[in-house]
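Record type: ASSEMBLY
Status: queued
Input:
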Amino acid sequence: MICPKPTAITGLGCISGAGLDLAESLENMFSGKRNPQPPTKFTTDHAVASLVLELRDEFKLPLDAQETVYARTCQLALAAAFQALTDAGWDSENLCGKRVGVCIGTTVGCALNCDDFYRAYKGDDIPDIGIMERFLRSNPAAVVARQLKLDGPVQTVVNACSSGTDAIGIGAAWLRAGACDIVIAGGADELLRLTYSGFSSLMITAPEPCKPFDLHRKGLNLGEGAGIVILENESLAGTKQKKGYLRGYGSACDAYHLTAPHPEGKGLKQAIAEALSVAKLRADQIAFVNAHGTGTPDNDKVESRVLDAVFPGIPFASTKGYTGHTLGAAGGIEAVFTIACLNRGEIPASIGFSTPDPELPATPVKVNTPINGSAALSESLAFGGNNAVVIFAKGDT
Amino acid sequence: MRMAIQGIGITGGFGSGVETLRTALQTGVVTTREIDGFPAYHANIDGLDEFVPKRSLRRIDHLSKMTLLSACQALQDADSLDGDRSRMGVVIATGYGTLQTSFKFLDSYLDYGYACSSPTHFSNSVHNAAAAHVSMQMQATAPSLTVSQFEMSVPSALLSAQQWLAEGRVDQVLFGAVDEFCEVLRYCRENFFGAAEQGPLQPFAFSEQSAVAGEGAVFFVLTRADEDATYGCIDKIMLGNHLACSVKLPQDDLLIIGADGHKECGSLYEQLLNDREVAAYAPLYGSFPAAVGFDLAAAAVSLRDRTIYASPESAGAADTAVLSPRKLDRQGLACLKFGGGGDYGLIRLSR
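Status: finished
Output:
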């Protein structure tokens, strides 16, 4: 396996229920603020509502006039991409003529969100074909590339909840292969009635604020948002301030079950081993782990076992208590948080965790915790048995 | 890095198996099947139980069954049906994902209430469900990737397969492309294109709308090209936007174009083809995003047979179109596909 040089990360952008940009997200997380509530943008007839983390109402779609042109997921991807590009010193003018790739992970961004269309189709009404036209225009990576008039590789990754993490690993590979010089990579997903009903049907959503790794955890809270990093090759990144570096990426499939993780975390261990090997790091050189930590009984049990086995004593936290589970966006958002926490030298309390579960051998941090070290790992587990891991190094200070 | 094609499995409107595709290329005749007066190329999944026990297929939907059938065929064709799969990556490209199951999931809550949403349909409606079924059936524990980008899904996903092999992440990639037809799609196509969907599909009639819907799955077993290739090699994959930066076609290569009767993209092909020697095979399998993979299979079979097969429809074809079969006297072939908004994918193959 090739062990490449670290990839420079020059810009970060994120939007979620934790905050409308990185600074606000960090402020809220480190002060322990979160705001899960029943969904306000759609209704269902569930007897008990599961809580979700929606974006604050102040959030403005970046393409106001085109709200009906692109799906909300595309707008979230664009908003986070604009933040990250600005952070990296790029805009649509100085990007012109550069070879820029776009790799975005999503789950619902490629799903047919067409309740209203389909209800009319099944009934006596005439369906609004415009809903389908919008779907056909709304491939997240393609929309970002087109809006910014970019020329380069474009990929929309649909690996369920590991999509955002995979997209970052794939984008870095494009740079190494010389397919482009800059990559806009990460994940985006909106909150939909479709996924809300789907996750509720699996009985893994919680009617209360989620409690990752806690004895009394009852399930996940869905969320929405986007997280984007800007990756640049050495010649372009040059002397720019680097926000961080991507040191390693690994992924593996459990090949075990459509929705449940392998009980011993076989694929997750394999993905971690690959990422550490590529990064040329030992497990004890990892300062902290941003866990997938959804708050579901199965996920947290498996993840805790793997963290205990591979990273004994290394602090870890789940940030999903602040953001909700943003599905395909989660890997992108958590990559941004991981880099920011590395640079800050501190990780936030794993909100929702208070009572250890005797079945879980490793438990997350209860309070904001200083960390020592220059590398950290973020992991994502997904439907389909996918596991993806990225390792980041601290940026320039 | 070049990728060697070691095996192909395919199911589409012409039948199932790579030799059936070859027969279709030789005869140029495939009939569509009409449902409610609307023709389409429907794929069947006969023979899947030769590879996968029926019991394991109970909760697996049509898209995943097409996927499993052609994946198994590809491994059989590559003489790799048995063996250790810990170093075999799975990459799947799909334009729409699982349409039928997605609508069944909507049925479950629109008919019976949100609290009665079907967990089985939900978990099978996720885009990477087909890849998961392949990984589980094959015990493929290496990386798995699903890409969904309408017509650009295949070239984009192929780029990742190439990089996995180049970087030594895997030794073999089971690469597939799949899309399915469904009644809602038929309704939408009727609304978008009206009577033009009645066929025949005429890929060279660039200014006409003549697309006919299709479905199917195709899989390739890919390795690094340091091994001998059964079918030929994939040399290069290019993606971009033709309107932002014009596509640069490889000199001298014969082109297999993904023109499938959509006039929106027809003009882009027309502009580029001037004196190019071109073939188009969409009338053998129809119009659907994953059909780019079928073009790739046609190119691979042509390289193996050292024969370029006749384009099945000649309406609107220029003198440079390949309208009768002949010996393939060139080293290279390239598959070109245009998607919405000028996006393009170009895949170059050679012996």
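Annotation: The first strand of chain B starts at residue 3 and ends at 12.
Annotation: Chain B has a mean pLDDT of 94.
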